[in-house]
Amino acid sequence: MRRARTAKKDDIAKEKEQISLDDVACEKCGGADHPEWILLCDSCDKGWHASCLRPAIMLIPEGDWFCPPCEHVSTYWTKFKFTL
C-alpha cells in the first residue's frame, strides 16, 4: 500500500512529464497548437508541425524521422564521404 506522500510525489512527477511533452513548440512557427501533428526529430529532438514542413507531410511517417536541418547535415556528410 502506498503512503499518501509517496503517491503525491509520483503524481507530481507524472504531471511535470506530461506538461513537458505537451509544451513542445514547432521550430518553424513557434506554435504548440495541435501537438498530435508535431513531429519530433530523431536526431535533435526538436519539434516541427507536419504542415510547417515544405513540402508538407500529410501522414505521420513510421520509423525514424529527421528534421530539415538534420537531414541536410546527414545528406552533406553522406555526399562528402563519397567524394573522398
Under CATH, the homologous superfamily of the domain at 22-59 reads: Zinc/RING finger domain, C3HC4 (zinc finger)
Pattern of helices and strands = HEEH
Average of the residue pLDDT scores: 81
Shape: elongated
Query: Which consecutive residue ranges, at least 5 long each, have pLDDT under 50?
Result: 1-6
CA gyration radius, whole angstroms:
18 Å
Largest sheet: 2 strands, antiparallel
Protein name: Histone-lysine N-methyltransferase ATXR6-like
GO biological process, one term: negative regulation of DNA-templated transcription
Keywords: Metal-binding, Zinc, Zinc-finger
Pfam family, one: PHD
Record the SSE blueprint:
Blueprint: H1 4-22, E1 38-40, E2 47-49, H2 68-83
Walk me through the structure.
It is a single chain. This protein is 42% helix and 7% strand. With 84 residues, the protein is mainly alpha-helical. It has a domain at 22-59: Zinc/RING finger domain, C3HC4 (zinc finger) (Herpes Virus-1), CATH 3.30.40.10. A hairpin with a 6-residue loop joins strand 1 (38-40) and strand 2 (47-49). The model is unreliable at 1-6 (pLDDT under 50).
